[in-house]
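Hi there,

I know you've been waiting on this one. I reran it after we fixed the sequence typo, so this is the corrected version. Both the input and the resulting structure follow.
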Amino acid sequence: MDELFEYSDSMNAPFQAFTGNWKTVKPHWHYFTEMIYLVSGSLYAEVDGRKYTMNPGDLIIFHPKQIHSFLDYPVKDAANQSAYFYAIKFDDMILSNTTPGSPKLPKLLNSDNQKNPPSNLLLADDLKYDAVKLFFENCIWEVNHKEFGYDIKVASTISLIITTVFRIWLKHGFKFSTKSTFDQFSSKDFSVLEYIDAHSSENINIEDLASKCGMCYSNFAKQFKNQYGRTCKEYIEFIRICKADTLLLYTDKTLDYISQETGFTDASHFIRTYKKIRGITPKQRRTQKGGF
């Protein structure tokens, strides 16, 4: 079974800016932040199991390590328009903040630090007085033309977009965490999320994961729940369900086959776990296709 992880080359390509018109993107995750601004048409997005409907002028932000996808829209929008969007992906570390005492943008952007992160979706009504669409267009132009200093302009423009996003979140009552945190589950040589992704079809021993992170089981379990909002066992189940979704929605494989491919004991175990996480059965999910 393919991994959900999408490699990002933060050293040689710390940002990307492009246009797109596809409505279907299979579940995946990466270490970059990704922002999608919808110009026309409609999109259905799913982020860590939460579902969002995008309309023109809306912006959605995918935080680092969030599993996200686009699903087929079940009915055409009223104007019968094809989806067309602007996209920006970037390593948070390209952002800068020179105001003394202000919280650093990469820290605020990382949703791991938030037990109750704000909505990934920002509506057109919240963005109508800001030049967000123009900011996206500027980034895309700079990346395509690569004139002198384009990297500085792109990083600066992304900071403007993120500042707008933060202000909207704050207006809606979101409070940023002031706690100092660091990623205890990734190092130069090992990432627990990548390991789980690559080995999700196998029997993963959580005590072994704790050992690989240099932690005792109880501390690992507590810190994992604090950082990712799920127990490690729940996260493993979620990864398996995300991979099962790809087979459910894009193939005609049987439930027995899917359960074997994604690490479940049998079809019954798969169906029970799927309903627990998605609230519907795998058969209902396949029938609905992308319906919300």
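Quick highlight: The chain is about 40% helix and 15% strand.

Best,
R. S.
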